[in-house]
Amino acid sequence: MTKRIAIVGMAIECSSFSVWTTQLENFIVLRGEEMEDRYPFLNDYEDIEFVPLIRARSLPGGPVAYNVFQGIKAEMLALLEENGPWDGVYHDMHGAMNVRDMDDAEGEWMQDARKVVGPDCIMAASYDLHGNVSARIMENLDILSGYRTAPHIDGDETRLRTISLLVESVREGYHPKKAFIPVPIALPGERTSTEWEPGMSLYAKIPDVLAREGVTDVTIQIGYAWADEPRTHGAIIALGTDQEAVNQAAKDLAQAFWDVRAEFDFGVPVGSSDEVIEQALASPESTVFISDSGDNPTAGGVGDVTYTLKRLIERDVPSAVYASIPDKAAVEACFEAGVGAEITVTIGGKLDTVYSEPLTVTGTVLATETFAREEYGHVGPANKQAVLQVGGVKIILTEVRTPFHFIKNFQRLGIEPLEHKLVVIKIGYLEPDLKKNAPKAFLALSPGAVNQDLPKLGHKRIERPMFPFDADMTWVPEVVVS
């Protein structure tokens, strides 16, 4: 007999310290057949009918407007109700959504979905490893599996792994045994990458734990530290067929995570914006990449803080690229003036009014281009971009907040990054393509809504004690949901 599995989701990473609010137009919403390209496995199971319903995805940013979240959730619930009954539901999520005026958005999403599909339906979710997991989430989900790499190169693998676990459970009519342990650690992703220690060795423990009898999946959630919510912490989730084995697997990984908490550190040299600019200019390498980390839009930063850019210009840096500043008015001014024109514009400091102020510059328009908006496999409306040369700095201006994770993002604007001494990008750790091409890299501890100095941001609502806020605390792993 054919089993039916619905596919839904709402994915975004939100800094609660951002003054910028994510609105509906910031989401790319796919429905029905529009979702099929993301799920190549739809026809891999003869006995399973997958039914894509709705998935909303946005670039990380500030908290989602309350009415936007409730509207998308209501549509999801209506689609589940109208098209049921269901043997399973797959929630394609991120896990670090923050919504204005509420806590635990994913917890409410899962709880309300469970009310619609009933207790017998098996619900699964895949998460970014920077998602925050609450007890309510785990009480309503049967399966949760997260990424195992940061930078994230296993998104497709994680989705397929989660679907495989769900399909097996649906076929057997079996709800897996589970164990959930919140781990009181809140650290930024730039310190917890799986490409260096101790993250590398911590995640390398997973295969040995999976080899244990009665254990089918384990997840280490680093969590998302820039959300001031009670569920902000790390987590361990274990699944399997034997409750005792599952509990022990979770406890062992939680203890391993806790034991290395003080060893997490940045993978590249760090310093203030002024310090890393000075060191980069003095470096023998022909090109040096600098991460302007405090305003990283792919971690939830607003994206138009001018702090580091201002320092590049004031220092009269002879050869640099800066990516990027979202400023629709400035982009329109560049398009109107045309390539080759000299213009004076005021850029940045319009979205983020806490950590930045507008910067007035005079420069020459080098390029004006229009591209499709692309975010994590979703393609949306057009995004105008321009390049403005101010002194020795090529400033990339964009119509909407835009990540620059690939060398090709620069090249299509006529910029060869490696022909410049400095390449400064609003990013945290370098994504794989940038890291591969960077002769040397630094990370600037710049201001913004995703500042690396967490205590400076002023968390008030996280559960205490919490490392590193309470550095001397003690803790023993305990299963909270099973």
Provide keyphrases for this structure:
nine-stranded mixed beta sheet, 482 residues, six-stranded mixed beta sheet, MlrC_C, 2 domains, alpha/beta, 13 helices, MlrC, M81 family metallopeptidase
Task: Describe the structure in your own words.
By secondary structure, the chain is of the alpha/beta class. It has two domains: 3-263, no CATH class; 270-450, no CATH class. 26% of the residues lie in helices and 26% in strands. Helix 1 packs parallel to helix 2 (105-117). The chain is globular. The relative contact order is 0.14.
Strands, count: 18
Helical percentage: 25-40%
Note poorly predicted spans. none
Would you tell me the structural class of the helices and strands?
alpha/beta
Tell me the count of domains: 2
**Averaged pLDDT:** 96
**Reading side by side through the largest sheet, how are the strands ordered?**
10-18-11-17-12-16-15-14-13
TL;DR of this structure?
This protein has about 475 residues and is α/β, with parallel strands linked by helices. It contains 13 helices and 18 strands. Strands 10-18-11-17-12-16-15-14-13 form a nine-stranded mixed β-sheet.
